[in-house]
Amino acid sequence: MTNGIEELLAILDLENLEHNLFRGRSPQVGWQRVFGGQVIGQALVAATRTVAQDRHAHSLHGYFLRPGDPSVPIIYEVDRIRDGKSFVTRRVVAVQHGEAIFSMSASFQRQEDGFEHQLPMPQVPGPEELMTEAEFKEMVMASKAPEAVKAYWRRERPIEFRPVNLQHYISRTALPPEQRVWFRATGPTPPDGALRKCVLAYASDMTLLDTSLFPHGKSVFSRSMQVASLDHAMWFLRPFDPAEWMLYAQDSPSASSARGLTRGSIYGRDGRLIACVAQEGLIRQRTPRE
To answer: Would you say the C-alpha torsion 249, 261, 198, 110 has a positive or negative sign?
Structure first.
């Protein structure tokens, strides 16, 4: 068996079926639907394979249209919208069972020098000062957490997380709508910067929507909630190594109309701002059955 990161890299290695047409698969781990980050990462791989190597992804904007079926392949169709002197634009549609499940626009830029500034990284304890994921798993397994939560943490995953504050994970206390999480790939990745962005795109969908539920004492695992990502936007700002610790600083400025809006800033251990993320998701309270 391969470890988590090797499996992720294999899943991101799409099969080239035809000009602008690619096929991806999903891990067979018992999920009822395809993880959103997987579709984002694979769609970015498909788009990247249609641009010149000197053009680098700097942003993506995607919409989740239907739940993905993990039991069948996903077909990615790439539309070469524009090839400019500085910027290249691609549109990708992910298809299953003859219907679109995800659509994404991605923009690529030739490397340029320019002005530099960024907001500083929040001051938080370092990952070495926090509970390891293995220790956290032991705590979850020994707790009265729902079986769905325990099953999630049993799986070997490609990304290791260390939340700065564990209160949301062990209680249903209402908390401020913000979260700080250290994360990294569980093993090395090739030095290919384009592939590393696809790995980061995969990871960026993890923990994000949950932050919008903090003020309501709920989580994405709450049986009373119907939760799903609706859209996802991401901006790649500076180079990084996924195997190095990164801080995901998240906040949710609003929830209304059964939707939660969440923003995230991803920092390197050295304080450099690596990427920014924004996502809106469905956070619908289920109607109790009589």
So the answer is: negative
